[in-house]
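User: Fold this; tokens only.

Assistant: Input:
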Amino acid sequence: MASSRRPEEQAPPDIFYNETEASKYLHNSRMIEIQAAMAERALEMLCLPAEQPCLLLDVGCGTGLSGETLEEEGHTWIGCDISADMLRVAKVREVEGDLLHQDMGAGLPFRQGAFDGAISISALQWLCYSDKTCDDPRKRLTAFFQSLYKVLRRGARAVLQFYPKDATQLQLITAAAMRGGFGGGLVVDYPHSTKAKKYFLVLLAGPPDPSFSLPQAKGMNDAMSTAGTEVSNVARQNHARRHPPSRGKAGHAIVKSREWVQRKKETQRKRGSEVRPDSKYTGRRRSKVRF
């Protein structure tokens, strides 16, 4: 029987997101759809310049699902996560972003002003829990937000989606963000829906900007059932666009195009991996006949 407790109350993140949990992000289409939809919403609220590739940070990147959304829009990204098993799945999925095994509560080890923006999906609430007697949620949140502020260029935004347990956690998180130097505020999509309700902390790094405004929340006037349906449908459409169904028999792997194979090989070369040279057979579908 599945536990009704929140994941954060069951085990520390590096233990909860073990090999079993990480594998769900490879095979559970519902989890993949939700993650992709929230990443698209976060990217939208970053308000990045049109047609301009940016370097973005994905905090709590997990298996790289949200990073894929960033790269599909032409951006370069670096992800960090506390779960080694989640990062291993990301490598299996051959994501294009660079990956770092890092506890966000210990701060972010990047140079000052390195990133044009940052997103985080379903990770921030973990800092509200003490897994060790030496851990203080207030101090860990402060360390995270101060380091996040440092690694963002001035004028950049961070959009952090999270699941607060209650008003106390919400206040703890927002207060830590303000102490870290950020301006901004909270955007709650579908506030009247139990299932579709999503919290986004939209932050601005740097001095106050008179032109800054919070994005409009979605679903302000929708009925609860309508809001939940809309989120689900959008996620399914986007997932279908990214991952077209296989044309082979059931159970066979999706055949990759030549362009896809070449792009992945080039990424591996840049990382210093030994890769076979391209040939006329690269990406060619192999015959099913075996001798």
